[in-house]
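This part of the workshop introduces the protein records we will be handling. An example says more than a description, so a record of this kind follows.
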Amino acid sequence: MSPARRGPRPERAGEGARLRRRGLAPRRRFGQHFLFNPRLLDYVIAQAGVGAGTRVLEIGPGSGALTRRLLAAGAVVTAVEIDRGLCGVLREEFGDRERLTLIEGDVLAGKHALNAAVLSGIEVPGTPFSLVANLPFNAATPLLLLLLEQCPGMAKAVVTVQDEVADRFVAASGAGAYGVISVLARTLAATEKLLRIERRSFSPPPKVDAAVLRVTPRAGDRPAPAVYGALKELVAWAFSQRRKQLLPRVAARWPGAAHACPARARPEDVSPAAYLALAEAIVAAESRV
């Protein structure tokens, strides 16, 4: 997969100047690395399949470069921006645009929950939504996992994230990037790394390259809450000693479920499906106690 080269720069220069006039600059504490490249922004929207009436959640709209294109494509956008100054920029440009709802605040309510205002704005029964965003680099992983876990109405996500984060979401068993995130994400969704983006495409450039990641939840094929809870506990415990064979450890901790554990396998060798089967066996064994 070849990296995307830097494209035309006029829009990037214009966006940067607009922020500077307001005395604003990207803030590291919010993980802000703005993407202004028109070709890459259009690519993200095309891969998300955004069209008239598509409900979109955009997290971290920044100065509105992607928001502008989403609205032009006919999307109904809920944008969540934590930076008060950037919210002023967005209100100045978009005003009371009918198809845009701007929520000023953090999309996260602590480490393990989403902002209730965001949930109420996007979770409409029977009406799916797509996450389309240049995600804040310092929060992309927990955001994606929480949305997969807590938002059954999410039809897909097409987002820019750090390249190494994308690798973790798509990694198969045996790969160097395979770990807890890989197992949980691939249990709940199909994951695809679509394009690598060179770091110089962002303003300011991050320390690592980025990627466009597509995540498509497995509709109607979600594990029961008790099983998923057991899976999260299992994989965190398993990968805490990723080089040790798993079966002896499972037999010592969950003897009633050892029959479901692959023999002579280390945590990095066990597929998401095998982890899920083992979690189901653990729940079944514990229910018999």
Summary: Residues 3-217 form a domain with the Rossmann fold fold (CATH 3.40.50.150). Residues 5-10 have pLDDT under 50 and may be disordered. The longest helix spans residues 272-287.
